[in-house]
Amino acid sequence: MAGLLATVVACSRSAPDAFERGLAYYREDKFAKAAGYFEQAVTSGTPTAQAWNFLGVCHLHSGNTNGAVHAFEETLKLDPGHAAAKYNLALAYIESHQIEPAIPLLRQLTQTAQCPPSVHYQLGRALVQSAAWLPAKQALNKLHDADTNADVQNMLGVIETRLGNFKQAKHHFESAAQIDPAVPAPTLNLAVLEHHYLGQKSAAVEHYQKFLDQTPKTEQREDIRLTIAQLTQETQKPVEPPAPKVAPPAPAPPPKPVAPVETPVVEPKPAPVAVAPPPKPTVKRRTPVVVGSLRAGDRTKARADFNEGVKQQQLGKTAAAVTAYTRAITTDPAYGQAYYNLGIAAVELNQPEKALEYYEYALAADPDFSNARYNYAIILQKQGYLADAVAQYERLLVKTPQDASLHLIVASLYARDPQAKDKARQHYQAVQRLTPNTPAGRDARDWLQKNP
Fold it and tell me: What pTM, to 2 d.p., does this model score?
């Protein structure tokens, strides 16, 4: 009875009173309880942007990323200029592994007056996860504390490795390890760099062992011990066999997020940032689904299901959205936009291979569907189908040859392959020609000078 009475009393409170109760619990870091009161504040009376934003922050603290995305989107509906909500929405996207929609939000914030350093930092992290190495480098270099931030130095080391600048990469990893010796990721990255890229096997053994000393319970322990044994044996041989692949390190645990009461902000868990050893000589290729001609159906009826899917997806109910979109393509098998939204939903559900299938159907329905082709290329790239991703980016460039950002992506992918340097050069030249006075143009010029 006491529990029921408490529920009745809580539900009878006014929206402002509920907001104040939520704020009190928020200050005590009781985010689940705070969320209940903020939920009440936005559903009883007139909802405010402030209440929605606090609700989103509480959801992020509690691990409810879909609810957080919905709350921040509602904040921006009421106050489109709410900078904290834009930042929080970007972080919610990153937390739910939706990197691509986070990037434009963070880019917008970098154009505002007095942009805080955290925006450049999060933009750099998102771009690293998207393998956009040069833009990521530009974002991180805008941080005033870049030289004293171990995480930033580690990411810059990853970027320089991917760009082929191994000496600079080693400097960054060594700086990161010196700034914060307790963080193991730079030590393992340094070992991988020395092992696979610089051929410094004795140094690599030293750093592999140091990483094991730092992380005695790591799941990689047996693989690294085997690598150490093999490297130790190889240094005594005149002929060196191919080196085994070493898995990337796990991320260090993030610090506890701190958010100001007026405009709360939550930092997401950092994603793993590690140097990977050189790719195997075999090329991973995608075998697309075989899509024949798609028969047009009842588009009017299908659109009703499609609209229901959009509604459910906006509410964070991805599974329900998939059900609605599936009904739409069953009614109209040629409904390209429904396949496209199914692809987005599959990414939200961490089903990248399924997303690729949906985008293949979307492109079969409409080969000129550029957004579908762009998303398709991004997921191909993330799944390691690099040659297929390049082919899709190249098809986009046929229609938009002046898109410097696409040229930059293609150039960075070609630059990974020593046999494709000529193709990389063509695209870096396009970047330099299209955006000569930008950081991207200057980086392209630097690459061209180093790779004549």
Answer: 0.51
pLDDT 10s digits, 354-410: 999 999 999 999 999 888 899 899 899 888 888 899 999 999 999 889 888 888 888
Q: What are phi and psi of 214, to 5 degrees?
A: -75, -35
Structural domain contains residue 190: yes
The answer to whether residues 47 and 16 touch, using CB atoms and an 8 Å cutoff, is no
- Tokens in use for 326? 């599936």
The backbone region for 237, taken as left when phi is positive above 0, alpha when psi lies in -120 to 50, beta otherwise, is: beta
**Widest CA span in the chain:** 81
**Do 390 and 314 share a structural domain?**
yes
- Asked if the structure places residue 370 within a domain, the reply is yes
Return the CATH number at 154. 1.25.40.10
The tens digit of pLDDT for each residue in 299-330 reads 999 999 999 998 888 888 889 999 999 999 99
- Which residues form the domain of 184? 146-237
Q: What residues contact 421, with CB distance under 8 A and at least 6 apart? A: 414, 415, 451
What is the length of the chain?
452
Q: What are phi and psi of 121, to 5 degrees?
A: -65, -50
**Residue 439: how many other CB atoms lie within 10 Å:** 15
